[in-house]
């Protein structure tokens, strides 16, 4: 007690002297500045800025893992981030449950454990999805993905009906047509190249784009429009890299990205009007846009909470912006899954054989049976192959979030407001305590009642919490159907290179050699391969 009083009084006594000293101090500094040359002043400001940059980094870093100092003043590891290496990400995750890095003024905290990742994804009070600055311009500020809190929850509820199993079943007919078309396309492409394995990275992106566009817009979108969007879409991905110049200047990556997005949304607006007309005339829904119009139509005569969210008329522009976010959310992740799936199945003849056997069995060898919900549900092994591919090579390895207010994420660490907080999904999916031999591809680990199936908390492939992936059932259904059909009707060979198993990060993850494949026609009943 005594010492407290003593401290208090000695502080009080110090104060006037301290004030007097600081007054002369400030005066001295002002005088020194006034007598300084412009050059000296310039360099002093730079030095103060550099010191502040380091001090602010130390304060924000606290006790978590990360470089002791910002190696490159101000920019930090900006140059490395332009060409991100998977091995560097792994090293960062291994450095501690929480680690940090600072690039320009952005302070980034990376969470690498399952529980920290889940905590972040489920803490909408403290965080919201972080989008690069240009994303708001490219996807437009009015886009629903930028909503937060209750507004976001309500909007999502109005979209949930578009991705239920029953809604998805309505899109299968047009999706199957796209699958059939691409089976032919891949075979003739390979034939033109004398069946020598070719890079299929671009073809995989194209088929994914075509499948999504057909599911979203049905027959309202023309073949030419699909081709144009599929050809140009990579410009949007390139424009939305995590590190990018925030102002859109003509002929830069972001400018091309914005032009592509605007062109695509214009196409979607026209499709939305055609869907409205079709449903108003009593037509049957066959795509996401139809389903949306049908939900609005049906909600008119209902008064429950969910129907009330659909009472207003969604404009064509609004529908086009939402559909663009579906394409945006799906294109890179789906292309990544497609590349790994086709690579792995080709490299594993045992897996290929099991898929083929199951595909014939569920159809009773009747090849004319169209895709349906029940048919896909019965493809248990094929489904496990898709699920294991997602675990083994999860397309989305991290999801950047933005800290809205100071977030006490761990007992010894509070993430500062304004920081970027990145939950990592990959380590939870390769956790040896949950998945035996996590670096092995084992579809059977997903049989009903298995430990992998029981470990729901580790299944972070599609995120968790309020922003969990809207398209996850769509992904599982579409890919199970797709790989099943390709396995029956084609035989594809994969040229294994030293880079095939290495991971390239381009928004999502891809085989580093861009996937070398060649397709031949196969008779599903006899297994005969035509060359
Ligand atoms: C292999 C394919 C896919 C993977 C791995 C994937 C994964 C993810 C992940 C990790 C998130 C973030 C979740 C979170 O923050 O907790 C997400 C969000 C989202 N995904 Fe997917 N996704 C895939 C395909 C799709 C498809 C095909 C669609 C649409 C048809 C879609 C629509 C969305 C949407 C709209 C969001 C944002 C939801 C919101 O903010 O409320 N995704 N996805």
UniProtKB/TrEMBL annotation:
The positions annotated for binding heme are: 469
Q: What class of enzyme is it?
A: oxidoreductase
- Return one GO MF term: heme binding
Q: In which pathway does it act?
A: Steroid metabolism; ergosterol biosynthesis; ergosterol from zymosterol: step 4/5
| Names of the cofactor(s) | heme
Entry-linked CDD domains: CYP61_CYP710
Instruction: Write out the similarity annotation.
Output: Belongs to the cytochrome P450 family.
Q: What is this protein called?
A: C-22 sterol desaturase ERG5
The scientific name of the source species is: Lachancea nothofagi CBS 11611
């Amino acid at each position: 007690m005594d010492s407290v009083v003593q401290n208090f009084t000695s502080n009080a006594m110090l104060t006037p002297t301290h004030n007097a000293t600081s007054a002369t101090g400030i005066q001295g500094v002002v005088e020194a500045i006034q007598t300084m040359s412009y050059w000296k002043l310039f360099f002093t400001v730079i030095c103060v800025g550099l010191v502040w940059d380091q001090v602010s980094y130390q304060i924000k870093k606290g006790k978590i893992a990360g470089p002791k100092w910002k190696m490159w003043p101000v920019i930090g590891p900006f140059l490395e981030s332009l060409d991100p290496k998977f091995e560097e990400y792994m090293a960062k995750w291994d450095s501690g449950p929480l680690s940090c890095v600072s690039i320009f003024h952005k302070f980034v905290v990376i969470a690498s454990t399952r529980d920290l990742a889940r905590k972040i994804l489920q803490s909408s009070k403290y965080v919201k999805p972080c989008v690069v600055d240009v994303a708001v311009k490219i996807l437009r500020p009015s886009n629903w993905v930028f909503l937060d809190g209750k507004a976001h929850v309500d909007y999502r509820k109005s979209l949930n009906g578009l991705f239920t199993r029953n809604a998805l079943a309505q899109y299968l007919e047009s999706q199957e047509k796209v699958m059939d078309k691409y089976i032919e396309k891949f075979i003739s492409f390979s034939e033109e190249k004398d069946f020598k394995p070719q890079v299929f990275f671009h073809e995989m992106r194209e088929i994914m784009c075509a499948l999504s566009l057909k599911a979203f817009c049905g027959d309202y979108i023309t073949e030419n429009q699909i081709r144009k969007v599929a050809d140009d879409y990579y410009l949007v991905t390139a424009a939305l890299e995590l590190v990018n110049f925030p102002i859109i200047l003509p002929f830069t990556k972001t400018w091309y990205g914005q032009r592509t997005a605007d062109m695509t949304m214009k196409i979607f607006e026209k499709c939305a009007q055609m869907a409205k007309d079709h449903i108003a005339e009593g037509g049957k829904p066959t795509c996401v846009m139809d389903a949306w119009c049908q939900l609005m139509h049906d909600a008119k005569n209902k008064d429950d909470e969910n129907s009330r969210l659909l009472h207003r008329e969604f404009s064509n522009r609004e529908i086009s912006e939402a559909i663009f976010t579906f394409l945006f959310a799906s294109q890179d992740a789906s292309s990544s899954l497609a590349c790994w799936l086709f690579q792995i199945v080709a490299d594993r003849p045992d897996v290929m054989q099991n898929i083929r056997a199951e595909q014939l069995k569920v159809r009773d060898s009747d090849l004319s049976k169209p895709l349906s919900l029940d048919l896909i549900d019965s493809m248990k092994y094929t489904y496990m192959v898709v699920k294991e591919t997602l675990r083994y090579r999860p397309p989305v390895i991290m999801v950047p979030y933005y800290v809205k207010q100071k977030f006490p994420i761990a007992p010894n660490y509070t993430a500062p407001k304004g920081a970027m907080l990145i939950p990592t999904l990959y380590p939870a999916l390769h956790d040896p305590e949950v998945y035996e031999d996590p670096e092995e591809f084992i579809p059977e680990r997903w049989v009903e009642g298995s430990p992998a199936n029981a470990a729901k908390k580790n299944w972070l492939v599609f995120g968790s919490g309020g922003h969990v992936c809207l398209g996850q059932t769509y992904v599982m259904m579409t890919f199970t159907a797709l790989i099943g059909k390709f396995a029956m009707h084609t035989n594809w060979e994969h040229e294994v290179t030293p880079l095939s198993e290495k991971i390239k990060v381009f928004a999502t993850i891809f085989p580093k050699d861009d996937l070398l494949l060649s397709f031949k026609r196969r008779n599903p009943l006899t297994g005969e391969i035509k060359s």
